[in-house]
Every structure is written in C-alpha cells, then in structure tokens.
Design a protein that fits this description.
Strands 2-1-5-3-4 form a 5-stranded mixed beta sheet. Helix content is about 40%, strand content about 15%. Helix 1 crosses helix 2. The chain contains 5 helices and 5 strands.
C-alpha cells in the first residue's frame, strides 16, 4: 500500500510539473502574440516612418541584415527603438494586415510614441524584457539603454551618427553573429576578408 501511494504521488508530481511547463509555454506564446501585436500596430501607425534627419544610424539586425535610419537630433530613443522593433516583424506578416488600434484595450492611442511610452511606464523596470532586445554601439561596444524622453542628440555615442547592433535578449551573442548555416559569415565584407 505504501508503494502504491508513493507511485501515485510520483505520477501526480510528474503531471503537475508537465502542466506547469505547459502553462509557462502558453504564457510565453500569449506574451509573444501581444508583443507582436504592439510591433505591428506601431508599424501600421508610422513608427519610424520619417527618413529625414541629420543623424545617420546604421542598424545591424540579428539576422545579419542592415538598415539605415536618419533621425533628427530631437528624436527620442523611443523613436529609434520603435523603428528597430518594427524591423523584427517577419516578412510574411503584411503591413495591410497590421492592427489599427493598440493590442491591449486599456491604452488609448494618443500617438504611437506616447502610447508606447505609456505601455512601457506600466511595465516598470522591465523595459528591456518588453523590447526583447538591446541596442549596442558596434565600437567601442557599449549599450544604449532605452530611456524615456531622452533625445538622440543627448546620447553622446549617437551624436553625428553611429553603427549599432541589435542584441536579442536571452540569445547568446555568438549565436547572433552566425548566419542560418552556422558558419559565422555575417554577410559583411571588408577589404581584409576578400
């Protein structure tokens, strides 16, 4: 009888652990869906649409691609982060299918940047987790953390332009430097590499 109880307890613990893992997976998926909804809403509502400005920011994406963004010195880090964020939307998700209103109803659209900042304020200290990435100056390697109301012209490392790398959080940096074949070729060639 004691053995039977032990076996039942073991089975119950295994079932509970399996259910806990499934709940974690479901919650992660739900958060990813909501997050992608925010990205797509920002893209549809013009996040980073302007191509004019005096500050040239070259952005290296996690997939090895590069995009260039021109910003005014008065643009905020929110504008830069939103632009990068919209670059992480998979190509198969068409712009015309993006959301017209914020994915979470408690946020009234008062402009893309202001709405995103309200959402981030609600997030508290977990803004890195919400963005899901960090911007890092290519050389010298230095993080450019998101800060509300900080102008691009106020960030010394961005004045006059910069090259930044997008580092996905939770992904080892070395994995991001390799292409899909894993051979380490990031697609960027210099005179020395030829």
């Amino acid at each position: 009888m004691a053995e039977e109880r032990k076996e039942q307890e073991r089975k119950r613990m295994i079932a509970e652990e399996k259910q806990r893992r499934q709940n974690e997976i479901d919650e992660r998926r739900r958060k990813e869906e909501v997050r992608m909804g925010w990205r797509r809403w920002a893209r549809k509502n013009g996040a980073g649409a302007s191509t004019k400005g005096s500050v040239r920011i070259a952005v290296r994406l996690p997939n090895g691609g590069r995009v260039v963004k021109m910003l005014e010195e008065t643009a905020t880090l929110t504008t830069l982060y939103m632009f990068v964020d919209t670059q992480l939307i998979p190509a198969e998700l068409a712009v015309q299918d993006d959301l017209s209103s914020p994915p979470e109803n408690e946020y009234e659209a008062v402009g893309v940047e202001a709405t995103i900042e309200m959402r981030l304020a609600a997030e508290g200290k977990n803004t890195d987790e919400w963005w899901g990435f960090r911007l890092v100056l290519a050389y010298p390697r230095m993080a450019i953390p998101w800060q509300k109301d900080t102008k691009v012209g106020q960030v010394e490392s961005l004045r006059g332009g910069a090259q930044v790398v997008v580092e996905l959080l939770g992904t080892p940096a070395r994995e991001q430097d390799t292409d899909s074949n894993g051979d380490g070729d990031d697609g960027y060639h210099t005179e020395d590499s030829e």
